[in-house]
């Protein structure tokens, strides 16, 4: 299996891009995906034959989960490494992408493949390659209190023993990925400049939801 990239220099100039609304991937986190559209089955096949890298990125228009054609894309996505796959009898895939680094979409390529491809740059995201970068600046006590308050608010249980043993960066990124917020909020979390900013942004979103009583019917963290 190709090795995980450890710096921007290890990245290819272009990658397949997978437009998916509301799907957040962050460095060193894991995103399970069910792949059933023929164009994306072909994309996974190509990734498995090659470097196993796929760029997950949101479309600007969030009305469609997976837009047809060449709908405009956000400028920032996250590169994922395909670390696990299962193939069903009808040719569908269940895959897991492990976040490598955020990237800027420089421009799309004109290609003959049914899936889209783009030139990417990880310039400015060098810190994404270090798993724990920036976690010393996060107010972990405040972040965990937010989790505890939200669990009580939404009436669900959390595995506190597991939470205590999880590193701060992994904890923040996991909570952002499973948070119940929409595509626009997920993009804000993705583009946060630092881990501390991402943690504080999620705290602010959660406190706002609890203050307004969850009237938008958001689902709890899970």
Automatic annotation (TrEMBL):
InterPro entries: Lon_prtase_N, Lon_prtase_N_sf, PUA-like_sf. It holds the Pfam family LON_substr_bdg. It comes from the Bacteria. Residues 15-210 form the Lon N-terminal domain. Transmembrane segments: none annotated. Gene3D superfamilies: LON domain-like. SMART domains: LON. This is Peptidase S16. It comes from Devosia marina.
